[in-house]
Design a protein that fits this description.
This protein is an alpha/beta fold. It is built from 16 helices and 19 strands. Keywords: Signal.
Length: about 475
């Protein structure tokens, strides 16, 4: 088996560096291929972009390394060529709080209060097409769930857990539902925890992190969206602010992270569309999902490997479809007819099939505990659409067209129950600042952007000290 060091070595060879042995030596590069900054940011998703923008606001020089050809991570928008209208099929909304308003104001984002397309909900068992009455069709009532959330207020914005971890938080969500009579709320919680596969088996604390008090406030009408329903505009505006400080379609292929106070303890070799570049920085902010396959080129030590090897995650897919044969004006929710699982379907499965703001264009979110190919997911959705056409009494016989497909895996990166009980989050907190490196992102805080921004904002004084 290859070590992380040998993997980085091989990657460097593949990149065509002039001398792999001297890959961190500025003398091996032309001056145009050396970038010197106060802080290097790996990952241009929600937290990485926020961190970079606000480091610049603090008069620090930055560079962002992002593997996609744009910023924004799981933010996905689509513009219809015929009408010019846009719709979001990834991140839907942002909490209307002061931090969001300040960030949007600085970027120049025009935003409005969140509203969903007017539609009638049909609850159906997606395995059979059988309609299921009385589940998921009315406004959700979370009163009992909110009473439980109130016991752990810090979970809305952090992983600050009491130790030992309360036994209730370690219960499977299924057992927690039974213990606190949450049967009538469980299905709606499942829908709100989109992307979290095998929900009933998960520790309850993981569910509380996703369906938090702040999340519910946003979902119940306190969210904002961009004026044109195009959340990628946020990151286009951020890219304008960053300019050449954002390296898109770029990846780190080797790194050296020193704990010393030398001028540039962070050195990254980055493969860019114009060839390898050497980044020299005083500090490093890592915002990508911290699984080993992502972090292999980042010079991990034994402690980091030990902790980051414990993460588990779900696989999450978002897609846009037209030519569905479904009647316009509807939203179909996946509801199991049998109440033994609180009507929550087993995964892999879609959560819903819902029409967007663009008539005739539908979006679907789909989760799986193990990776699936795009072909497998699309085939399952196509079969599901055939059953739902019968549910809706549609006589149309069509072949759906998948307009967009996005794999957002790894999603909901969390430790296993035993690691959680044994102080996992206290241990990873101890990594912040070590070897001149800080971490942010969904695994460290939440998948909700304002929580990520708040978490990242609290790191900035340490990074800039």
């Amino acid at each position: 088996m290859k070590t992380l060091a040998s993997l980085s070595f091989c990657l460097a060879l593949a990149a065509g560096l002039p001398n792999v042995r001297d890959q961190f030596d500025p003398a091996s590069y032309s001056s145009s291929n050396i970038i010197t900054r106060d802080v290097a940011v790996v990952g241009g998703g929600s937290s990485g972009t926020y961190g970079a923008i606000n480091l610049k606001r603090r008069c620090k020089t930055v560079v962002v390394i992002e593997k996609q050809n744009r910023l924004g991570g799981p933010v996905e928008s689509y513009t219809d060529a015929a009408s010019g209208n846009a719709t979001d099929y990834g991140v839907q909304a942002y909490w209307n709080i002061s931090l969001t308003r300040d960030y949007f104001g600085y970027l120049g984002v025009n935003y409005i209060n969140m509203s969903s397309p007017l539609s009638e909900t049909i609850s159906a068992d997606f395995r059979t097409g059988q309609e299921v009455q009385g589940v998921g069709q009315s406004s959700a009532n979370y009163s009992l769930w909110e009473a439980q959330l109130a016991k752990y207020p810090t979970l809305s914005y952090s992983w600050d857990l009491p130790y030992p971890v309360p036994s209730d938080l370690l219960l499977s969500f299924s057992d927690f539902v039974a213990k606190y009579n949450l049967q009538d709320e469980a299905y709606d919680i499942f829908q709100d925890a989109s992307g979290f596969s095998s929900l009933l088996q998960r520790p309850t604390v993981d569910v509380m992190k996703i369906v938090s008090e702040y999340y519910l406030n946003s979902a119940q009408g306190n969210g904002v969206v961009t004026k044109d329903h195009n959340n990628t505009e946020i990151y286009a505006l951020a890219l304008q602010k960053l300019g050449q400080d954002a390296l898109l379609s770029s990846t780190v292929i080797a790194s050296s992270r020193s704990a010393s106070n030398t001028s540039y303890p962070i050195r990254l070799v980055v493969n860019t569309p114009t060839g390898p570049k050497l980044i020299q920085a005083q500090k490093l902010l890592i915002s990508i999902p911290p699984i080993l396959s992502n972090l292999a080129p980042l010079d991990l030590d034994a402690t980091e490997i030990s902790l980051f090897s414990q993460w588990t995650y779900s696989n999450y897919y978002a897609m846009l479809i037209n030519n569905t044969g479904l009647p316009s004006g509807y939203r179909f929710k996946n509801v199991v007819a049998d109440n033994s699982t609180y009507h929550i379907p087993a995964t892999p499965a879609p959560y819903f099939v819902s029409e967007t703001h663009i008539q005739g264009l539908w979006y679907v979110w789909y989760t799986s505990p193990s990776p699936l190919t795009q072909q497998a997911v699309e085939a399952d959705i196509a079969r599901t659409l055939g059953r739902l056409r019968k549910t809706a009494n549609s006589t149309s016989s069509v072949t759906p067209t998948f307009v967009e497909f996005k794999d957002n895996s790894p999603f909901t990166v969390v430790p296993p129950r035993d690691a959680l009980a044994n102080g996992f989050y206290e241990k990873i907190k101890g990594l912040q600042g070590k070897r001149n490196t800080w971490y942010t992102g969904a695994a460290w805080a939440s998948s909700e952007s304002p929580v990520l921004w708040n978490f990242t904002s609290n790191l900035l004084p340490e990074i800039t000290a």
